[in-house]
C-alpha cells in the first residue's frame, strides 16, 4: 500500500535571505538561526556602531568645514610645498566609508528586529576595521595640521542644533522598537535593566537638550538688523586669482561693498598685494627666477615682481573648481594677469566709492624699508587719491603715526582695552568671537568685522547676531542670500520643541505597551493551535509546496494492517485512522 507523509509548507523569505546573506553570507535557510548572538558577534556590533557614530561626526565636521576649505588647502601647501585640493580624496573616502558602515548597521538592526542571530561575514569585518582605522588616522592628521578647526563644530551648532534635536528624537524613538523587544521578554536580567535605564536617560537628556541651545536665529523678525556689509577678501578669489585687479573687480561686480587685501612692501618701497610670504604658489617665479623661488616676496623689487605672471597658477590648479565655468575671454585675461600693486587696488576702490581694509605686513628688521615702510604706504594712499575715511588699517600698531585713518585690531580685547587704545572696530576670526562678545561690542559702539564667511549658514548666524560686516572669499555666494536661511520666533520654536518631545514620549510608550502585548501573546499561545493553523492554512501563490518522496513499503514495514493514512488536499486536512478510530 502507498503511504503518504504529510506535506511540508515553506514560505518564501526573500527579504530575510537578502538581509542575512549580505550581512553574514548566510543565504540558505538551514544557515540561519534565531539563537542568541555570541559575545564575539555582539562585540563586532559594538565596533560597527562605534564606527558609524565616529564617521557621522567626521562627515558632519567636513560638511560644515566647507567654509574653510581654501584655508585647509593653504595649510597643506605650507606643509608640503605643493598646491592641490586635498579635500576631494577626503570627501570621497568619507562618503564611501559612511555609506558602507551605515548600510551594514541597518542590516544589523534588521537582524535584531527579525530575531536573527548576528554573524558578520569576515570580509565585512575587514572592511569595518579598515574604515575605522582610516577614520582615526584622519582625525589624527587633521588635529595635527588643522587642530583649531574643531571649534567650527560648536559654531555650527548655533545653526543646526534645532534640526539635530529633531533628528535625534526621531532616531531614538525608532530605536525604542528594538529596546522594547529586548527588555520586555519573560526572562529578566541585570543587563536588560541597564539597557532600559540607559535608553530612558538618553531620551530624557535629548528632550531637555534645547535648554542649552544658543541660536541667534531664534528671534522675532521685527528686531532683525540689516544684512552685514560684504567685504571682498582678496577680491573674489573663486572667480579670479586672489589679490589681482580682476579679482577685486569681480568682487565689486558681485555685490561687495568693500575690499580687503594683504599688503607687503617690496625691497624698493612699493606696496603690493600677496597673501603668502613667497611668490611660489601664485606666480611663475620658479620659471623666471628659479634660484630665488624660496626667497621672501619682499626681497624682490617692483620691476621683478611686476614681470611675473599671476594667473597661470589659477588656471592650472583650479583651486575652487570654477575655471570650467569661465568664458574663453576671462581665461585669456587671467592668463595675462600680473601682481597687483596697492595703488592699483586703491584707485579701483576710489572709482567705485568703496572702502578698503588693509592688512599690512611689516618688513623684518633687516629689510631695507624697515624704517620707512609706513611712509611708503601712506604716500601710496595719497597717490591713489582715496579718502582716508575709506581706509581701515590693521594691525593697530603705530597709532601715533596713523592719523586720519581708521584702525582695527585683530586681537580679541575687552571693551576697556579697546577704549584705551583709541580704536573703534575689531576684525576677528569667526571662531574667536561668540554671540555674547558680539552683543557686548555692539552695545559699546565697537564695530565688528568677522572673517572668513563663505557659507550661507554662517552668514545667517552673523546676520541674526547683528554683525555689521563680514569678510568673504565668496561675495558672489553671499549676495544670493536675501534673508537668513531660517528664522523662528521663540514662541514658535518652544511649541515645536515641546510638541516633538511629547509626541516622541507618547510613541515610545505606545511601542513598549505593544511589544509587551505582542510578546506575552506569543508566550501564551498553544503550540497545538499553531500546528493546526499551519495544517489548515490554504496554500497561496506565494507558498512553495515541497513534496517529500512517496514511501513505498510493505505492510510489515509501515503502518499496521488496520492503520491507514489519508491526505485530502482539497480541504488541507490529514486523516489518520487506526482500528476504526479516526482523527
Structure, described:
With 583 residues, this protein is of the alpha/beta class. The protein contains 20 helices and 16 strands. The chain has an eight-stranded parallel β-barrel, surrounded by four helices. The protein has a three-stranded antiparallel sheet with strand order 14-15-16, with no helix packed on it. It has a two-stranded antiparallel ribbon with strand order 1-13. The longest helix has 34 residues, at 490-523. It starts with a strand and ends with a strand. The model is unreliable at 526-583 (pLDDT under 50). InterPro entries: GP_PDE_dom, PLC-like_Pdiesterase_TIM-brl. It is found in: Membrane. Its main location: membrane. It comes from Ameca splendens.
